[in-house]
Amino acid sequence: MSALFEPLTLRGVTFPNRVWMAPMCQYSADETGENVGAPNDWHRQHLVARAIGGAGLIITEATAVNADGRISPADLGLWNDAQERSFTDIVSRIEQFGSVAGIQLAHAGRKASTTAPWKGGTSIPADQPSGWETLAPSAVAFGDHAIPRSATAVDIAAIVSDFRASAERALRAGFKVVEIHAAHGYLVHQFLSAASNTRTDEYGGDFIGRTRLLVEIVDAVREVWPAELPLFVRVSATDWLDDETPGLDAPTWTADQTVALVQLLQDHDVDLIDVSTGGNGRAHIPLGPGYQVPFAARIQSETTVPAAAVGLITEPKQAEDIVSSGEATAVLLARELLRDPYWPRRAARELGVDIEPVVAPQYARAY
Predict the structure, then answer these.
(1) What is the pTM of this model?
(2) Can you tell me the distance from the alpha carbon of 35 to that of 78, in angstroms, rounded to the nearest whole number?
(3) What percentage of the chain exceeds 70 in pLDDT?
(4) Closest Cα partner for 318 from 287, 293, 349?
(5) How many helices (H) and strands (E) in the chain?
(6) Which of helix, strand or coil describes residue 69?
């Protein structure tokens, strides 16, 4: 029996295996008109193909809870009826092939209002037709991006409300998992890290202050997300920044703080931590196969919340060993699933497993 292909049940949802698709922005939504921010044919093909390929969970890309929370004008959103209707169709198609459909809800904060990566990923000024004013915990820019406006108490309350409203829409669209994006230097991560949060009010300063926004979002989402459905949180376990980083005069977000955060979230009905790293500054990251797995392993061993690992997981035996050793409860594949949508089925063959669900009948002759 393969640990990687053993079903996993969280609350009332059973995942057919532990090979999951990580959220990956496609920067392909309509930028204007009545379908702005809604998933389209590209997203449908992209997501459903990975369900046919055998991934046990398909998580959509970072989906903004309001228009200003998009990374780029071409990002997905879930704040209106048209977006909700488009997601409903995609969810049903994902489930048709036996995968669980999940959505990552996000706000980009100071990293919003940018062009797509293949257009340079540069900041779009607020006075341009396609740009807008960005919001952050403090008026501290990300690199050469525009300086954001420091969020007021009213702004923060509205953001919490927007996460709740998007979760309600996700439920109506049929998603079985909702993930709160608190990683990669986006808004919630910006509040967590003293490298980007210089506030002195209740949402800044010490660890409790800097984690307050995430806790409030988790609680608000849980109010509307049914008890039988899982709630995930994606974190960057470390900023990969240190005291020698130019311009840095405060402690940054570290692995120790991440463990403390997850210990805090244990009492807020979070079911799994999706563990990534980085994104909140120009850092040197020591890349290598499975380089983020040790951070997931710490959460597995030092908290009661399961963790999923992501980051340069490319080979079936590598993924099998991560799960079978207990370093992570599941693995999330990103770029590898862009290269090979059928990676889960290839991995099953290499590991000698009869994958469930059964392949679509149109493809059965290949198996």
Answers:
(1) 0.95
(2) 11
(3) 96
(4) 293
(5) 10, 12
(6) helix
Helix (H) or strand (E) holding 322: helix 316-324
Q: Residues 280, 284, 290, 292: is their CA dihedral positive or negative?
A: negative
Tokens matching residue 63: 């989906």
Q: Place 287 in a pLDDT band, splitting at 50, 70 and 90.
A: very high
Closest by Cα among 325, 319, 322 to 348: 319
Q: Phi/psi zone of residue 93: left (φ > 0), alpha (ψ -120 to 50 degrees), beta?
A: alpha
Q: Under a CB-based contact definition with an 8 Å cutoff, are residues 218 and 268 in contact?
A: yes
> Is residue 367 flagged as an active site residue?
no
Determine the Cα–Cα distance for residues 48 and 46; give it in Å rounded to an integer.
6
Distance, CA of 182 to CA of 106 (rounded, Å): 8
Pick the catalytic residue from 27, 186, 203, 342. Answer: 186
* Residue 286 CB contacts under 8 Å (≥ 6 apart), including other chains: none
Q: Which two three-digit tokens encode residue 352? A: 């000698």
Report the candidate in 269, 266, 258 with the shortest Cα–Cα distance to residue 297.
258
What is the pLDDT, as a whole number, of residue 284?
Answer: 83
